[in-house]
Design goal:
heterodimer; A: mainly alpha; 10 helices; flat; B: alpha/beta; four-stranded antiparallel β-sheet; 17 helices; elongated
Chain lengths: 276, 423
């Protein structure tokens, strides 16, 4: 169970990274942002190892129970953050991303970690394709969510003329809006592919493309939300504040689709039914 | 005694409509100066005409008469009836003028305290008058002194930093909203003294294009030229709000020139691309309500100063320091001016030479004890009349020239030649 060891290392590093980033948020020392980035980055490497080890051990992509899914989602979010950070240098986003990733991974830590043999219906190469696209899309939307939150804070500060140290550290409204747009244009195709591949897989596994189980319904709602945002943004010119609010609302829908549906509603995708 | 007189109006005393009608375009200023110097009671004259103030400076012997002449000149040159402008004018004399010009030069009297443009405008006005030979020793001295007072205030107080930091903050805020300024466009409405500085900082920050709109077309053209920009008629400016990203407004209009309804409509047409308004005007040009519209950011001059962390206490302190400097310099100048009075000068000249004569005579007499009373009296008379004869022409000249303003020049020179100040 070497993956569990790496999992624990990851958790500790994420915790340390989160602490560093929160200190950065409070005191605005550039050094702590650098430390946070380093710790979160090391945590991410360790997280990669965790997933690889678990893949080798289980013989399938580790996304079939809630523990694995939470861990995978957390990994995808941190990865997305680094991709966006590489392009936009948004250290302060780390202070939002790292607690989110930490929360997910702590939750994962409380769940049974045993590798369960895959039921025959899920043994398919569609499993990694469907889940990876879906999770990557969701993770990119997590970035959109963070940029939306940051946008609203920055907008509030500039409007109310309190442009102190926090406003100084937050990226400009333009950059935050651009991140929103970028994450939308990257996340939406990923989500779409995730849903389409899931549908194709469902046809193979369950004999029907779409069976309106709660997960599917909520995915559709989420997808429609983001489709609406993308449309409004491109056609009507909804940008900035409205786009930021939509990104936050959209991420709420994602969290519900991912977690709420699994924990509260019964259905084909429910871990509670299959893998508890 | 020649006195310095000022009549003028500024952004505090006169509404925009009158200020615009009264202003003297710079290219015609020499002509106006010539006409000004033709006024019968005026011996020296200077015209200062900026966006926010128009002031006539003059030197005259009979201040009562000249005030009326100046008032009529101001109204007449712009084809306005005098009553239309009379109650917007301030009239200052002597020491008050000195204080006023020192405060104007140091930018204490500006709409945005500390803005540096006014000193340049003052220097230009002076140079034009000097070239047109309408200034004489008094105005020359007054303006040179004003420039050095301005310099002193600038170096000894932080008043000058304020305008710079306000412009700097404006650029920082623009960057907070737009990320970077490359390719952005800025619209300047009005041509207030502070606009230019803020626009300068913005273009240095990367702003691509400057559009200037002003009720006076020439002013718009002039300012646009400075930034290689574009001038548009004042009535057209709402249309250009569709393309620009930053608006600096400083018209000095008594009412808002932009209301919330207009801006709401514009932001929709802009497809909600953000717009950053910088309102430097006092009173405000832009309805503060505008700030409540999404994607519109409005900062007025107080907001900018607050962000620039020029706190109120510090502001008052520095202003007091500047006023102290002005007060000291006014006193110095007035002492110098009073010393130019011709009769005290003649008296002290006579006194000084008589003292020398008496001293030297005493020396000679004490070395010649054998002289008789009669001989002594003759020597006394001789030296006396030598001094009197020698001083006759200079004193006559001083008395003569006292009738025109050149007199002070001779007085000044005589005082210097004979070191009359050192008692």
């Amino acid at each position: 169970m070497i993956n569990v060891f790496f999992f624990k290392v990851t958790l500790v590093l994420y915790l340390a990274g989160t602490v560093a980033y929160l200190i950065y948020l409070l005191f605005m020392h550039e050094r702590t942002a650098w430390a946070g980035r380093l710790l979160l980055g090391l945590g991410f490497l360790s997280h990669c190892l965790t997933l690889v080890m678990r893949y080798i051990e289980a013989g399938h992509t580790p996304v079939v129970n809630l523990h694995e899914s939470l861990s995978f989602f957390s990994w995808a979010i941190v990865g997305s953050f680094f991709i966006f950070h590489y392009r936009y240098r948004v250290d302060i986003m780390g202070a939002l991303i790292s607690p989110l990733a930490l929360l997910l991974i702590i939750w994962a830590a409380t769940l049974p970690k045993a590798v369960i043999p895959l039921p025959p219906s899920l043994r398919s190469y569609w499993l990694p394709i469907h889940t990876t696209f879906a999770f990557l899309g969701n993770a990119i939307f997590a970035v959109a969510f963070c940029s939306g939150v940051m946008y609203l804070i920055q907008e509030r500060l500039v409007k109310s003329k309190r442009v102190g140290p926090l406003s100084k550290r937050l990226p400009s409204l333009e950059v935050l809006d651009e991140i929103n747009y970028r994450s939308l244009t990257i996340g939406f195709p990923l989500l779409t592919i995730g849903i389409v591949t899931g549908s194709i897989w469902a046809e193979y596994a369950w004999g029907s493309y779409w069976s309106w189980d709660p997960k599917e319904t909520w995915s559709m709602i989420t997808w429609l939300l983001y489709a609406a945002l993308l449309h409004q943004r491109l056609a009507v010119g909804w940008r900035r504040k409205k786009a930021a609010i939509m990104a936050i609302v959209g991420f709420g829908a994602i969290l519900f689709t991912f977690l709420g549906v699994n924990l509260l509603l019964e259905g084909l995708h429910s871990y509670s039914e299959w893998f508890r | 005694m020649y006195e310095v007189i000022l009549i003028g109006l500024n952004h505090r005393t006169a509404p925009l409509e009158i200020r615009e009608r009264i202003s003297f375009p710079e290219e015609d200023l020499t002509l106006y100066l010539k006409r000004l110097s033709n006024l019968p009671s005026l011996t020296e004259g200077l015209i200062l005409s900026t966006c926010n103030r128009v002031e006539l400076y003059g030197i005259a012997k009979n201040s009562e008469g000249v005030v009326n002449e100046l008032k009529e000149f101001l109204a007449h040159q712009h084809n306005l009836p005098l009553p239309a402008i009379e109650n917007t004018l301030y009239i200052l004399k002597g020491e008050e003028v000195v204080r006023h010009i020192f405060r104007v030069a140091s930018s204490i009297d500006s709409m945005v305290v500390g803005e540096p443009q006014i000193l340049g405008q003052l220097k230009r006005a002076y140079r034009l008058a000097h070239t047109a030979r309408t200034t004489g020793i008094l105005l020359n001295k007054l303006f040179h002194k004003a420039f050095s007072v301005a310099k002193r205030v600038r170096t000894e107080t932080s008043i000058g930093n304020r305008a710079v930091s306000v412009s700097f903050v404006a650029v920082e805020l623009a960057k907070k909203i737009f990320g970077h300024l490359e390719g952005r466009e800025v619209l300047i409405i009005g041509a207030g003294e502070m606009c230019e500085l803020a626009a300068q900082y913005l273009t240095r920050g990367g702003v691509k294009k400057v559009i200037v709109s002003n009720r006076t077309w020439e002013r718009a053209l002039n300012l646009a030229e400075k930034f290689n920009g574009e001038a548009i008629p004042f009535t057209e400016f709402p249309n250009s709000l569709l393309r620009v990203d930053i608006v600096i407004s400083s018209t000095g209009s008594p009412d808002f020139i932009l209301r919330k309804e207009v801006v709401s409509r514009i932001i929709k047409e802009r497809k909600h691309r953000p717009l950053f308004f910088i309102d430097i005007a006092v009173p405000r040009d832009i309805d503060p309500q505008v700030n409540s519209i999404d994607n519109i950011y409005l900062y007025d001059i107080d907001d900018l100063q607050e962000v620039a962390e020029v706190n109120v206490k510090n502001r008052q302190q520095e202003a007091r320091k500047a006023e102290d400097i002005v007060a000291i310099e006014v006193e110095k100048f007035c002492r110098w001016h009073q010393s130019l009075d011709v009769f005290p000068t003649i008296v002290s000249l006579l006194q000084k030479l008589d003292e020398i004569r008496a001293k030297e005579l005493q020396k000679t007499l004490s070395s010649l004890p054998q002289l008789s009373e009669k001989e002594r009296a003759a020597l006394e008379k001789l030296t006396n009349s030598i001094v009197k004869k020698m001083l006759h022409d200079p004193i006559t000249l001083l008395k003569q020239t006292n009738k025109d303003s050149e007199g002070v020049l001779y007085v000044d020179i005589v005082k210097k030649l004979f070191k009359l100040d050192e008692e």
